[in-house]
Design goal:
globular, 9 helices
Length: 234
Amino acid sequence: LLLHSYTSNAKEMQYLAKELHQEGYTCYAPNLVGHGATPEHLFASSIEKVAAGSREAVNYLIQQKYETIYLIGQSLGGVLSIRLANEFPQIKAVCIISSPILERPAVELEKRAAHLSRRYLKNNGRTEQEIQEFMSEHFPRPIEKFLAFQQFIVKSGKEVQAMKQPLFLAKGALDEDVFHKSIDLIEQTVNGNNVCKKLYEKSGHLISLGKERELLAEDILKFLKQIEKRTVSS
């Protein structure tokens, strides 16, 4: 199960899913609730709805009779993965990429929503005047949802110590400091002793879309294969 970042869509995980599929893994990469459509769909969503949708994705795989699920989440997808890992015993390993567990200013989340809106409107042929009118109408956004989003992230960080699965952590050397510190804190907090952390020197935040996406895929595959070898031998 591959979960993408905030304001993005499932295409963010497409390359990684293809590489995993070629090695025999069934891959499911859904759009998170409110994502992959119009800005208005994102505005109408909430972190509670997004979290509920991610649980539905796991339940879907369980209903399809998959007994072993590996969870790969990038940024927000990784935050969701922490919670899912503690809720579903079918999740046997977790890969967290560039995920925050430390609080950031809510304005940063609003900037992401604004960037998505501008890009979406431009890609759909809107004029600069139409884009400006849309932005004036819809921004600034109500702060309550962004504050709830931040609290969800912080509370998710407190659940890290309960995780028992083998854990792969990835961070991009060119990413913001808050993500570096978050990944390091996850490594320091988790109780499990099977933790692998990788730094990608040429990557920013979305490693799955960057220059080192091939290396990321290779490292995740190696991590999963090692888990399976240990499972068979034990």
